[in-house]
Design brief:
mainly beta, eleven-stranded antiparallel beta sheet
């Protein structure tokens, strides 16, 4: 790994970035994604991205949750130019690429302790200005 010169460090097969933050909302859970954390993305020779993300979530009622997820983002070669274009990428139909994650949570907050014992799957998709996920518990 080469020395870091900013919030984003690039090397031969991937990059690291500090996610800028965001929001989340679902049944019984809502709040903000705190800025920081880490997003380690590696590019395989076939163009597939392997994801390793760690975030801190701050709930509306002041609990902190640690969220980690791995995943795969597979973009067919014919979509790569549009996906690289910031003005076009959010217009690409998510059914045309594969972007899946496996979120896990940890917390010491009693009201959210149930998150410590579940496994989730997520489906990512591009929106204007960023990325969004639909996350569901595996039952």
């Amino acid at each position: 790994m080469r020395g870091w010169t900013s919030a984003t460090a690039r090397w031969d097969s991937g990059f690291f970035s500090a996610p800028p933050g965001g929001t989340f909302e679902g049944p019984g859970l809502r709040g903000e994604v705190l800025a920081g954390g880490g997003d380690w993305t590696l590019f395989r020779p076939d163009g597939v991205m392997t994801l390793d993300v760690r975030l801190t979530l701050h709930t509306h009622d002041d609990a902190l949750l640690h969220m980690t997820y791995g995943g795969r983002w597979v973009t067919p070669p014919d979509l790569r130019a549009d996906m690289a274009d910031a003005d076009k990428r959010h217009q690409v139909d998510p059914a045309r690429y594969y972007f899946r994650t496996n979120p896990l949570f940890e917390t010491g907050a009693n009201r959210y302790a149930w998150l410590n014992d579940i496994v989730c799957v997520g489906s990512g998709y591009l929106v204007e200005g960023g990325i969004a996920y639909k996350v569901s518990q595996v039952v």
